[in-house]
Amino acid sequence: MLTTLAPPDLADSLPWTTPGVLVGVDGSTHSVTALSYANQLARTLGLPLHAVLAWDYPPPLYQDLAYPQVRTSVRAHAGERLRDAIDAVLDGDEPPWLTYDARQGAPAATLLALSRHARLLVVGTRGHGGFADLLLGSVSAACVSHAPCPVVVVPRTWRVESETS
Predict the structure, then answer these.
(1) Per residue in 51-70, pLDDT tens?
(2) pTM
(3) Which residues lie below 8 Å from residue 97, measured CB to CB, with a gap of 6+?
(4) Does residue 58 sit in helix, strand or coil?
(5) Does the structure show a pLDDT above 50 at 139?
């Protein structure tokens, strides 16, 4: 059951104080598209934008976790992927109402826990998972099924220009 994987309530460790548009980012093109949509939606609704990249140690590294440099490297890489996605969407024009955080945890469980403190959750149709032919990835499906707030799944074909078309 998914709820057994969820981290405890994260209210004490949130990087934001006002619920807004929460977007899951993993660096994939689908998640960058979702970030772009979430940014536009947050601006339109006058809500803060909260970008989160949830990461966990890949299984082959478990035997190496005794080495602090491995933990630091994985954490730093996650932060870099999140910054790269934000830079790609905002092009250096970072609004003051943006918060972002790369945090350790299973992506679906982390987004579900954080969504308790959001007005809306935005995800891409799929991320970096291994099943490219799926229409909806496992994280997106879990969020749609279990999030306590409304969820928007942004199709990979959405473009900023399509909003005005």
Answers:
(1) 999 988 666 555 555 555 66
(2) 0.82
(3) 20, 42, 47, 48, 49
(4) coil
(5) yes
Please name the residue ranges forming H helices in the chain. 29-45, 68-90, 107-114, 138-146
* Contact between residue 24 and residue 121 where contact means Cβ atoms under 8 Å apart: yes
Which positions ≥6 away from 115 have C-beta within 8 Å? Answer: 22, 121, 143, 147, 148, 149, 151
Which residues are CB-neighbours of 157 under 8 A, at least 6 positions away? none
Domain boundaries, the chain: 18-158
Query: Class of 18-158 per CATH?
Result: alpha beta
Q: Cα–Cα distance between 82 and 102 in angstroms, integer?
A: 7
Element (H, E) at 133: none
